[in-house]
Structure formats: structure tokens, C-alpha cells
Amino acid sequence: MKDYVELLKKYNQEHILKYISKLDDDKKKNLIHQIEKLDFEQLNELYKISNRDKNKAIKGVIIEHIPFVDKYKLENERKETLTNIGENIIKSNKYAVVTMAGGQGTRLGHNGPKGTYKLDVKPNAKYLFEILAENLLRENKKYNVVIPWYIMTSTENNEKTVSFFEEHNYFGYPKDSIRFFRQGNLPLLSEEGKLLIDENYNIKIASDGNGSIYKSMKNEGILSDMKKRGVEWVFIGAVDNAILNMCDPILIGLTIDENNEVASKSVVKVNPHEKVGVFCKKDSKPAVIEYTELPDQLAEETDEEGELLYGESHIMCNLYSLNALEKIANQNLPYHSAHKKVNYIDEKGNLVESNEPNAYKYEAFIFDGFNYFNNMTILRGIREEDFAPIKNKEGVDSPYTAIKLYNEFWKLN
Q1: For residue 1, what pLDDT band results from cuts at 50, 70 and 90?
Q2: Where are the domains of the chain?
Q3: Could you tell me if 346 and 303 are in contact, meaning their C-beta atoms sit under 8 angstroms apart?
Q4: What pLDDT sits at residue 292?
Q5: Residue-wise over 19-54: b if at least 16 C-beta within 10 A, else e?
């Protein structure tokens, strides 16, 4: 067992000793146990990237256009060929779906997991999880299969998510074909690089980004379960897209036809400066570049037909071979820092509520996994059929816009 006192002193975290001295035996043991499990060397490395100038992240990196295929410009014969390839994968029980649902609905004014948010669509209001379940049940019926459905939760919302599914009888989805698994966590650090303590006198932690999905799938036995079931292709999408197409045979078929292991659906940017990550090649490898990192000159660059060279938005509709997921799961994706408002307990036992960003959260991004491949397939779709995100309480990408897109997609107006 590591000596927690020596650990804290060695890594300049001895302020935690002041909390330990005030706790009863159970809380003290719990906090010491958490300390002994921390990777302090990793925390030191993470703190180094805090508040790093994002523009420096692409300094010296060669950014290039990445080719894509426009789904709506495919000739009928080609479309039919690709559809048949994709449908054969689904019909052969070689396909699975993963939903990323680790977030809370806080920004929507909803107290609970985001997937439990109810969208006032026609003819009856539906939960986001319910919408996804219905879509998958529809695909099961179409292809006469039961698609394994894996749902990634977080430490924060796992219990409530599982209970929610139980209360709603899994929305009619076969229970033995649903598995829940949790994404990872990392401690938050103060602006001075210090560990923070939460209201229950635990080390303050937060989910470590959607990029942790790869290692979580490995560590929680999801990849092994997929292999046992004979799964070869896996779609990963977000819970907050009201018209998410989780089973697009053309995407599957095109990826196999192009001999790639990774693919993604995109939609074209509304304008050159829309605040979305876009596909590109970084140093000849597939990547997504954040809008904050894309220089204006590149953002506005067009080809001979007037199309944006960097206009393909990453909309969290990603497809992988099982081999690709196993490969990425064995890599250490880079972490990115975010400056956040964080409440914590100070050394006197007082709750500190911050109105300004005061701490750093560290996240891995799912699209950093693309970098481990020489090429990837990108299929351009359209917003009206692929992308109705719910990110904000009002305005753009809000429940209002998602409801409108949902109703129009299902012709419910």
C-alpha cells in the first residue's frame, strides 16, 4: 500500500491532509483509498496542458482536405450495390449499436440523464432513449434480427439510467440485448493544479470525455461481448440527436467497398464559420479539427465548384470495424483541457460556489481515434435526415429545432 502522506507531499497536494484530519473513520478511509488509486504523474502531465493556447496545437501540422462521398449524388446502381453490402452485414447479425449517454440534461434545465429528457414531438411526447429504442426496433423488424445495443453511461448517471430503462420496461427492447457500461473519470484540478474535494468529501472528478469510450469498451468487457456475438461492425452515436440514423446500410457498404475500418457521416457546414469540428487530414492522417483551431483562410477556402474544402461537420455518427475499436482501445488518446466553473469544499469545510471558470477538466475526444488509420470513409448526408441535435435550451440546436426536424422527418406536421 502506498503511503498517502508521502504521495501528497511529493506531488504538492498536502492540502488534502487538512481534510483528512477532520473526517470520521469511514470517510477518512474512503478518501485515502481514492488518493492511493490516483496516478499523480498523469495529473502532473494533464496540468501542463491546462489553458494551453489551442492555436499552438496545429503549429507545424499540415492541414489538408479529406475526400468524401455525397450520398445524394450516388448513381442508383452504385447506391443499390452499397445498400446490399450494408444490409447483408445487418441481416447476418454482424452489426451492433453503441449510444453515448453519459451526460446530464443540465443545460436543458432537466434534472437527470440527458437520455431521459422528454421531447414534445407529434403525435405524443417521447424520451430521447425512447426515440432511439423505437428506431432500433424498426430496424430489427426490417432485417429480422435483434441488434445488440450498448449504452455508455457515466458514474454520475449510470444508476438513474438503468433504473429508467427498468421502469419503462426497456421500451420494448429485448433486455438481454442491452448492456450498460460506464465511461471513465479524471480528477478536476484547480487553476493552481490542486485536487479539489466535493460535498461528500471525495476527490472531485468528472467524466473524461467521449474519447474514453474506446478504453471503457475494452475494460468493461463490451468488446469481448461483441466478439462473442459475432459482431464485426459497430455504430457509435450520441443520445441527443433526435433523428439519428443508426443503421445506414450505405455507410456500411461504402466503408467496406473503400476497404476502410473507420467511417463517419457528415453534413455540410451552414457557413464557413459555423462553430463545429470539421473533417480534414492532419499530417496525412484522418482527423477532425475544432473550429477554434481552423484558421479563417482555411475555413473559407473552396474548390473549383465553390464547395468548402473544410466543410464536412463531424456529427457524432461514427462507424468502426471491431478490429478498429480494439486497436484504438490499446492506444492512449491525447487529453484536452477545458476551463470550467466548479463548486468545491474548501479546507474550512465551506462550500465554494463559483460564477467564473476556476478549474480544469480533462477530456479525450472520440475523433482523435481516427488518427490511427491512414484513411477513413466520409459519407455526406443532410441535416434534415441525419442531424437534429439538442445542445442548448433555446435557439440553435435546441429542443425547438429538434422537434421541428423530427416532425418533418416523420412527416408529422
Answers
A1: very low
A2: 57-173+211-332+366-409
A3: no
A4: 84
A5: bbeeeeeeeeeebbebbeebebeebeebbeebeeee
Q: If DSSP codes are grouped into helix, strand and coil, which group holds residue 18? A: helix
3-state SS of the chain: helix, strand, coil percent to 5? 40, 20, 40
Name which of 355, 305, 149 is nearest 236 in CA terms. 149
pLDDT (tens digit per residue) in 210-228: 999 999 999 999 999 999 9
CA 9 to CA 35: how far, in whole Å? 12
Between β-strands 178-182 and 185-187, what pairing exists: parallel, antiparallel or unpaired? Answer: unpaired
CB 245 within 8 A of CB 107: no
Domain 57-173+211-332+366-409, CATH: 3.90.550.10
Residues 260-293 have pLDDT tens digits of: 999 999 999 999 999 899 999 999 999 999 888 8
Of 90, 76, 101, which Cα lies nearest the Cα of 251?
A: 90
Instruction: Please check the confidence at residue 57 and state whether its pLDDT lies above 80.
Output: no
Other residues' Cβ atoms within 10 Å of the Cβ of residue 78: 15
With contact defined as beta carbons under 8 Å apart, do 117 and 106 qualify? no
Rg (CA), the chain: 22
